Amino acid sequence: MNTSISIKFKEVETQEERILLRGIAEPVWRSCYAEILSQEQMSYMLDWMYSIETIEKEQSEGTKFFIINSTDSNSPIGLISIDSIPNPITGGVELHKLYTSQSYWGKGIGQKALNFATELAVNAKAKFIELRVNKCNTRAVNAYLKNGFYKHREDCLDIGNGFVMDDFIMRKDI
């Protein structure tokens, strides 16, 4: 694994940056989920999760979005979003999104992003980080396991339009 690539995290603050998030996520989704989700479900979920309204609502509720940039690319190479305030009942934060461009897979970018998320969670005084990952996305499941997460439980969430998210809820205690 090549971890010599230098990356920076830019917090999303402008409408242009919010629009850019979908452009970063969509090619990763089309690659990752091609054999897991139908094209219809992918389009539905991308429209739902990356609408300006959804992003603005999540930001107003304390979720921070970051664009991942690399010194060796003129284009963003990924994105991450995580709660900035622990849940008052559980004490945990949710890592909502973590995607890196396919050309950067296996180069340590995901691990650096998870380290960044962990640092944010520690600074927020969270007890744990929790995330949803599709049960069939073995590449992501294995990456999270390698980085200290464990399978906390399973959840099948009805997201509307006849679609579900059949996920592991993974957790990393801090």
Task: Report on this structure.
The chain is 36% helix and 33% strand. The chain has 174 residues and is an alpha+beta fold. The chain has one domain (7-173): Gcn5-related N-acetyltransferase (GNAT) (Aminopeptidase). Strands 1-2-3-4-5-7-6 form a seven-stranded mixed beta sheet, with helices on both faces. It starts with 6 loop residues before the first strand and ends with a strand. The model has no long low-confidence stretch (mean pLDDT 94).
Uncertain segments of ≥5 residues (pLDDT<50)? none
Measured distance between first and last alpha carbons:
25 Å
What is the count of structural domains?
1
Q: What's the CATH class, please?
A: Alpha Beta
Biggest sheet statistics? 7 strands, mixed
Backbone CA Rg: 15 Å
Can you count the beta strands?
7
Q: What multimeric state do the chains show?
A: single chain
Strand arrangement, major sheet? 1-2-3-4-5-7-6
Mean pLDDT, all residues: 94
Order of helices and strands: EHHHEEEHEHEE
What best-fitting shape do the alpha-carbon axes yield?
A: globular
Percentage beta strand: 25-35%
Q: CATH superfamily assignment?
A: Gcn5-related N-acetyltransferase (GNAT)
Number of helices: 5
